[in-house]
């Protein structure tokens, strides 16, 4: 059952038709027929009045007589099409004049249809229905296009329409913002120029071709100021063969920066701020592979603070922490080359990795490190072996062969460090296994004689020993 409200709504939705004719009898006939068809009708007997009503009520259709006194139908139509408020309203001309020229002029002015007089009412009704259907379709399309435009304009993601050649046909405001361009300034530019490392081949942008339809990829895109930004780029072909692609851009620079910071933090020891064990393990593996390729020797120092439990017991855990930080900085100072790495391996144990360093050089470095810690003269009052904080140091050097593993290098240096502990602490012990490869020119572990210049000048019993 229809309520007053729904009846009112139905009334509101009735298409409104403006009938313009300076002959009152024509107006009356047309009006009553269109009313019977269920339309709302408005009438005007002059062009001026028609323009006034059209602007006020915005009808869905105008039936317009061509020949009228004063402003004729052609001029009325021209003015209607020139006014933004009435430009989209379809106009059907009615005229007894059927000359081709009139018909053409009418269509050129933007008329939707042309009906000859005398009017046959069935034909009029059919043409009115057809125009109202078209109008309704085009209004729906316009509404959809407006909605789509609003969505694209308010998107946070950048959206581009790109040709196979890389030429940008459209960029939404987010895209302009991402890349620092003024509105529309991206149109006509090439995506190739913006994508870092992208090339043009045979007039086609390799970035577009490689990325098209391949899901999301992380790319570096050049901002207008020249700076490269990390972005996720998703490229999708618009249709199978019209050569257009929709590119979606999502700026992940901030995300990347915090990810990089997190990654860096994950590789640092929180107490001493030098590399942690995870970083060391990865670095050892990388340098091991490099040494395998280059045939260069790789040296490792494993170092453990002596009687550190007694240090903590005597001075407190906070002082112990501060002490570990000082030792770490001292070691860091001895990892001089960009390829050297000092790391805290765990607790009071540290490691130093020296790529392209033969056994004699590593032994000298180990002794320098040992002496540097002793020279800090950090009192360790309860230590039975020295009044100061000291370290025991193990050294191993290898020219890796295909059958060796990096764990072996660590085990050898670690064993040497335990030998230094067993030998009285505050010493450097060198792990050796194969006297014939002493200087690291052939695969295998190095074994040294006394390393020149490696003796401690400390007043304490520091020595370089050899462990086989
Ligand atoms: N303050 C502090 N102490 C630590 C930390 N990590 C490990 N330790 C302490 O280091 C001490 C190591 O003791 P042990 O393994 O017995 O070795 P040590 O006393 O150094 O004796 P040797 O190695 O035989 O010379 C333990 O008491 C740990 O609690 C740390 O981050 N901060």
Automatic annotation (TrEMBL):
CDD domains tied to this protein: GGDEF (cd01949), PAS (cd00130), REC_PA4781-like (cd19920)
Source organism, top-level taxon: Bacteria
GO biological process, alphabetically ordered: cell adhesion involved in single-species biofilm formation; negative regulation of bacterial-type flagellum-dependent cell motility; phosphorelay signal transduction system; regulation of DNA-templated transcription
Keywords: Phosphoprotein
Domain PAS positions: 144-196
The PAC domain, residue ranges: 215-264
Entry protein name: diguanylate cyclase
Native organism: Massilia forsythiae
């Amino acid at each position: 059952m229809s309520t007053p409200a729904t009846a009112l709504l139905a009334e509101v939705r009735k298409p409104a038709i403006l009938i313009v004719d300076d002959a009152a009898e024509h107006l009356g006939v047309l009006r009553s027929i269109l009313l019977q068809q269920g339309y709302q009708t408005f009438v005007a007997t002059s062009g001026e009045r028609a323009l006034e009503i059209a602007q006020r009520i915005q009808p869905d259709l105008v039936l317009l007589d061509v020949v009228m006194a004063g402003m004729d139908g052609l001029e009325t139509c021209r003015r209607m099409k020139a006014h933004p408020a009435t430009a989209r309203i379809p106009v059907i001309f009615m005229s007894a004049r059927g000359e081709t020229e009139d018909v053409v002029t009418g269509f050129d002015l933007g008329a939707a249809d042309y009906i000859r007089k005398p009017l046959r009412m069935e034909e009029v009704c059919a043409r009115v229905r057809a125009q109202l259907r078209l109008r309704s379709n085009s209004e729906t399309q316009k509404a959809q296009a407006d909605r789509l435009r609003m969505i694209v304009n308010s998107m946070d993601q950048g959206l581009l329409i790109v040709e196979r050649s890389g030429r940008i046909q459209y960029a939404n405001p987010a895209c302009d913002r991402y890349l620092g361009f003024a509105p529309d300034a991206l149109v006509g530019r090439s995506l190739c120029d913006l994508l870092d490392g992208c090339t043009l081949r045979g007039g086609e942008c390799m970035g577009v071709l490689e990325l098209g339809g391949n899901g999301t990829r992380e790319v570096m895109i050049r901002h207008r100021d020249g700076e490269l930004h990390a972005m996720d780029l998703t490229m999708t072909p618009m249709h199978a063969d019209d050569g257009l692609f929709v590119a979606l851009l999502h700026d992940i620079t901030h995300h990347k920066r915090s990810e990089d910071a997190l990654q860096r933090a994950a590789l640092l020891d929180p107490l001493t701020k030098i590399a942690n064990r995870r970083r060391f393990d990865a670095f050892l593996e990388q340098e091991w592979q490099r040494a395998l390729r280059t045939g260069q020797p790789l040296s490792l120092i494993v170092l453990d603070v002596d009687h550190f439990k007694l240090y903590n017991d005597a001075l407190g855990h906070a002082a112990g922490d501060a002490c570990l930080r000082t030792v770490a900085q001292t070691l860091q100072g001895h990892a001089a080359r960009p390829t050297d790495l000092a790391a805290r391996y765990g607790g009071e144990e540290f490691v130093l990795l020296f790529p392209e360093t033969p056994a004699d050089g590593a032994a000298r470095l180990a002794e320098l490190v040992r002496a540097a810690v002793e020279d800090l003269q950090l009192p360790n009052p309860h230590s039975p072996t020295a009044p100061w904080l000291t370290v025991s140091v193990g050294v191993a050097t290898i020219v890796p062969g295909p059958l060796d593993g990096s764990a072996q290098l660590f085990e050898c240096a670690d064993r040497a460090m335990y030998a230094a502990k067993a030998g009285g602490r505050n010493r450097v012990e060198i792990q050796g296994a194969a006297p014939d490869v002493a200087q690291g020119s052939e695969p295998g572990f190095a074994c040294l004689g006394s390393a020149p210049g490696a003796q401690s000048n400390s007043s304490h019993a520091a020595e370089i020993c050899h462990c086989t």
